Amino acid sequence: MKKIRLLLLLVIVYHTVKAQSYHALHGNVYGSGLTVYNNPASIVHQPFPWDLTIFSTQQKAFNNVATVKDYGLLGTAKNSYVEFNRGYYGRRAHYQSDIRLFNLRFNIGRDRAVAVGANLRHYLHVRSSPYFYTDTLQTTNQFFNLNQLASVPIGASAVQSSWGELFFSYAQTLYENELMRLSGGVTLKAQRGLSGGYVRLSNGYFEIRNDGLQPYFVVTDGRGRYGYSSNYDRISSEKSTWQNIKDVMGHTLNSASADLGAELLLRYDGYVRQEDAPPYNWKIGFSILDIGRNQYRHGRESRRFSGFKTEVVDSILQYKFQNVAGVPEFNDSLETIAAGYRGINGNFIVNQPTRLVVNIDKHVTQDFYVNANISANLRSSTHDEKYAVREMDMIAVTPRWEKRKLAAYLPMQYTTEGKFWVGLAGKLGPVVMGLHNAGWIFTKNAMPNGGFYLALTVRGWKFRERDTGVACPDF
Known about the structure:
Layout: H1 2-16, E1 50-63, E2 66-69, E3 81-84, E4 87-108, E5 112-133, H2 140-146, E6 154-176, E7 180-210, E8 215-228, H3 241-250, E9 253-266, E10 282-297, E11 303-308, E12 312-313, H4 314-321, H5 327-335, E13 338-343, E14 347-351, E15 355-365, E16 368-377, E17 387-388, E18 393-402, E19 406-409, E20 412-415, E21 420-422, E22 424-428, E23 431-435, H6 439-442, E24 450-459
Parallel strand pairs: 14-17
Antiparallel strand pairs: 1-4, 1-24, 2-3, 4-5, 5-6, 6-7, 7-8, 7-9, 8-11, 8-12, 9-10, 10-14, 10-15, 11-13, 15-16, 16-18, 18-19, 18-20, 19-22, 20-21, 22-23, 23-24
């Protein structure tokens, strides 16, 4: 039980300091090295000779399972409560988070730049087949009775992956003339898988029977597998908390990944003095991010099962699983009814959220810009045989007013789950803060869907000369 509590604690910590979509920084004129996470080529176009992001974090969440009622950021939680949503539909939940520490970007001359840093990242995806739910359900029989007319078998899937990474990025100008500047960049990452897990359940069929007294249900088929990273097996109540943390972190596996990107900057034409021109007219970027995977060793309680020894009555399910307090107890109960049942050994792979990103930034007038970001996941988190995590981003449009030390942003995004969020963000000196869903402020039923980001960045004391033309040759 202590192992489960520690695992839940780690998940809660990740989610309260919470990935990848700092929308206010996309295409940012006075940005920072954090733009490297959307396109490694972008760091060569930054206006300061160097910048250091001491700390940044982001969280993003979506679920259609439960809602926090009667609470917004401007109110109090006195009368708030959690309501589980009723009805017949497929349940989904997605969480992604990151913590970035001491991310340094540095320009080498005018045409090259590098960036380094350390990050912690976390993803969780849960999905189920459609089923009916009401808050009056108390027994397995009631659940089956409510869902006996469902047209699809019961199934569910989940995948979770957390890792730490050290990265090195390099970008340089590839081609330049009076009207354009093309840059390319690459990021290489060395990482360790800190926590991983998955669940795959399918073919959950059941039938109604009647013995003359009252209807009952029997489960006629079902199969699945579930696994977790073996470092959690190192947790013991006989060890100190610090020793448990050391053992969990010390028994992890190495892996690697990479990002690739290119960015094209189009300048204004027709200015008598190029230094009077805005920084650019258009900025267009293409990138493929998180090309790689994390690997984990199966924990000793990982299992696979298929079918049942006999038809399992709903009351037996209620009896065997209602008081389960952990994975070992769950396995003991499952073994008594499963026809095919065995442990899972070896390693398992969770692919990273590989995606294609197109970013277009347009100068409108004076200090006003509009940014559009399109992200296409190249891997599925619901594939039956392969495990992968993915980003929630799909399309984001961000109008912004921006100066060196002061900025305001209005990010609007359409997510992979078909949700439209209008956010808010601002910059004051070295601090950038933003919300993915402004409903957290203006309504009382938006949480937990949305999220926030925060970044603290210090920059070089000297502003680079504006890149409005080809550098003059040395004489």
